[in-house]
Design a protein that fits this description.
This protein has 419 residues and is an alpha/beta fold. Helix content is 43%, strand content 11%. The chain has 17 helices and 11 strands. The longest helix is centred in the N-terminal third of the chain and has 37 residues.
């Protein structure tokens, strides 16, 4: 049976069907025509079903035989991409690098969806649109992005400034009034956090389902406020520093951020729910060094979910975000409001910003957000609450002045409290 071809099996099944019909016709004497006809149709249907199954098996074997000829994973992937795949996912960079190969395969697609399109260069947006042979099958292209957040990275200052090359095709189309749909509702953060960046959007509202979440209704255990700006003075007489050019660090903020992380871990917060962000690569590296020295070897603390820069964390989120602003002499590149929006919109439940309040609160570009952060705690000292633990806190998020509230005077006091 295994050595027969599909055509031979088909012939056998057809012959069986004729035999069934002849046998039923010869044995139909003395029986009702209705019962004979029903029995015949049932047997014929069974034979046809068996035939369809055998054909499907041989079709599958024919498709799999290709993989016996193609030995390399790359060739097999090309075959699947060109003949079998219904959805193909790749980066815009990969689409550009593999464009010639895709054209040779005769790769075609009807729809294109591009995520984070506002952070993609013009040429990186156009190449995927041109990634098929003529005549092209492409019927619709959907670009999804937020032009209020960070633009594409262009290292050449001449191209960035003179040619405005850092503006994405997505942002250009929005500026010239191309038809587009603007989402006016968010489902990520609690309303008090969404208000920090809602002023950059037109009528941004919070979905009712967010307010119904228990985690949104309750306060963050051990912390008086859900969002706060904490002032960090010079630590041992030093504010920002730069061991090498543009490698900005701030040891006082790094110690303060890690101390708060340790405090939250003592209260029972999962390490996976906390992210440490910095506005400069130098501070990111310093935060990692401090975490390695203070927390990594102790299973009580461990490592947070991520320690990275604001720019690298675009498109990601976490429950709690501890943000270090680093600079103490100049505002720096945080003056770009798009970077500010990214920094403030990463947290779902709690955002705690460490920086020189006299510097950043006086910046006009940042005033709409920093005025709200300052209003939560005008003293700009970290406000904590005694006798609360993660998972057992029933205090409302609106109750920012409980009886057990107290304020931390500096990083030294918080470090002593944790130790």
């Amino acid at each position: 049976f295994k050595q027969k071809t599909a055509y031979e099996i088909c012939a056998c099944l057809v012959g069986s069907e004729m035999c069934i019909r002849d046998r039923v016709s010869t044995q139909s004497t003395g029986r009702s025509k209705t019962s004979d006809s029903a029995a015949l149709e049932a047997r014929v249907a069974a034979a046809r079903s068996l035939y369809a199954h055998v054909v499907a098996v041989f079709d599958e074997l024919r498709d799999c035989r290709v993989f016996e000829i193609m030995r390399s994973g790359r060739h097999r992937g090309d075959y699947l991409c060109g003949t079998q795949a219904r959805i193909v996912a790749m980066t815009t960079t990969h689409a550009a690098l593999r464009r010639d190969a895709l054209l040779e395969l005769g790769f075609g697609f009807d729809s294109l969806v591009m995520e984070e399109a506002a952070q993609v260069l013009d040429i990186e947006t156009l190449l995927p649109l041109l990634g098929q042979t003529r005549p092209a099958r492409l019927r619709r292209a959907t670009l999804i992005g937020d032009h209020h957040q960070l633009p594409p990275v262009v290292k050449s200052r001449a191209l960035r400034r003179a040619a405005n090359y850092e503006q994405s095709l997505f942002a250009r189309w929005v500026r010239v009034g191309a038809p587009h749909v603007t989402l006016d509702a968010q489902a990520r953060a609690r309303p008090s956090l969404a208000a920090l960046y809602a002023w950059r959007y037109s009528a941004l509202r919070t979905l009712p389902a967010v307010n119904a979440r228990r985690s949104v209704q309750l306060a963050n255990a051990g912390l008086a406020c859900t969002a706060q700006l904490i002032d960090v003075p010079d630590y041992n007489g030093v504010g920002e520093s730069a061991p090498v050019a543009h490698f900005y660090q701030n040891l006082g903020e790094a110690e303060y951020v890690v101390a708060l992380f340790m405090y939250m871990r003592v209260l029972g917060y999962p390490a996976a729910s906390i992210t440490l962000l910095a506005t400069y690569n130098g501070q990111k590296q310093l935060l990692r060094d401090v975490v390695d020295a203070r927390c990594a070897a102790n299973p009580l603390f461990g490592r947070p979910a991520a320690i990275t820069t604001v720019d690298k964390y675009q498109g990601q989120q976490n429950d709690i975000v501890l943000l270090s602003l680093v600079r103490t002499r100049h505002v720096g590149h945080l003056r770009d409001v798009r970077r500010l929006v990214v920094a403030l919109s990463r947290a779902r439940l709690g955002l705690y910003v460490f920086g020189r309040t006299s510097l950043f609160a006086a910046c006009d570009e940042l005033a709409p957000a920093f005025s709200q952060l300052s209003a939560a705690c005008p003293s700009h000292r970290l406000a904590l609450v005694r006798n609360e633990r993660y998972g057992a806190c029933e205090r409302s998020a609106d109750d920012t002045s409980p009886d057990e509230r107290f304020e931390i005077q500096g990083v030294e006091q918080l470090g002593a409290l944790v130790c």
